[in-house]
Amino acid sequence: MRARNPVGAELDLTPVLSTIVHIIPIALIAVRFVTLHEHRLDSPPLVAEEAPSQQLADEQDKERVVVRILATGFEVRGGDAGESTVPCVAPCAPENYDYEALNVLMVSAHARYPNVRQVVVAPDAGIPYQTIIGVFDAVTETGSSGVRKPLFPEPVLVDGADARPAPTGGP
Amino acid sequence: MAHGLIITSMVDMFTLVLLFLLMFYDPLYDGSSPVELPNGDVQAKAQGGPTITVTTENIVVNGKPVAAIRDGKLDAAVAMQGRAITALVSSLSPLVPKDGAEPPAVSVECDRRVPWQVLGAVLESASQAGFPRYRFVVAGE
Burial of B32 by CB count in 10 Å (0-12 exposed, 13-18 middle, 19+ buried)? Predict the structure, then answer.
């Protein structure tokens, strides 16, 4: 009778190899590689009850940059620099907001207030999340992917309804 | 002297590749995810922590649905406390550290199409539950 595993015989790996070679393409088709990044917010959204009085808000606004996200584009209030509007480059959809122009405004605002770290981002009710993230990208950093400079690294989210300029006076 | 091809090293390599792929294989993934994360340019890598997932249909805390969304708005049946969602506050409150330690930042995985009126209610709920810091997860390039 012949020995089942004769000494010195090599293990026949051909079937194993064949199976693996078939499984790998199937797994490669099914797999998806996604890198996840994140924007960090350390301040809770301000609500109307916690909003400062108009007088205090006016004093704070001297060095506060506010970016309102409207259905028609961006509205930027930068303290002493007054107010600028950045309309959409096409009928307003998340990809048609002019993030590059906003980034240019943020660079000049950062040059005026180099020590300010916060920027107020105030979206209106119907603004989609993709647009908010686009604004975060535009206000927090500038430059190409290789060389990036921080602008306002601590964005604060405020409801757009609370960020409208108050008509007169305060409590 | 005849020698067969030595394929042991190749089998080793294939086995490692196979194990790597199987680790990331999701048999339930059918090519369409309920959450389409927005694209972002930010460089900070995503970290762990309690996760709130906001799809176009519902709000999920650590895999458990807590509130429904209809046509881009919170369902009329969702109970609110001011701007906060009652069920979301209830789901998050037990996750706050009991030893007085600073609560971790909540990871928010939100669909790119969700409007601010829903996202704002989610953030307000997290804040009321005791999580005042957030991490917005985005898909990197």
Answer: exposed
What residues of chain B, 41 to 100, have a C-beta less than 8 Å from chain A?
41-47, 54, 72, 82-83
Q: From chain B, pick out residues whose CB is under 8 angstroms from the CB of A128.
A: 112-116
Instruction: Give a yes or no: residue A167 inside a domain.
Output: no
According to CATH, what is the number of the domain B51-136? 3.30.420
pLDDT digits (tens, 9 = 90+) for A79-102: 666 788 888 888 888 888 999 999
Model confidence pLDDT, tens digit, residues B52-81: 999 999 999 988 899 999 988 999 999 998
Domain range spanning residue A145? 48-162
| Interface TM-score (ipTM) > 0.90 | no
Best B8, B9, B33, B41 member to test A by mutation, with max A CBs in 10 Å, is B41
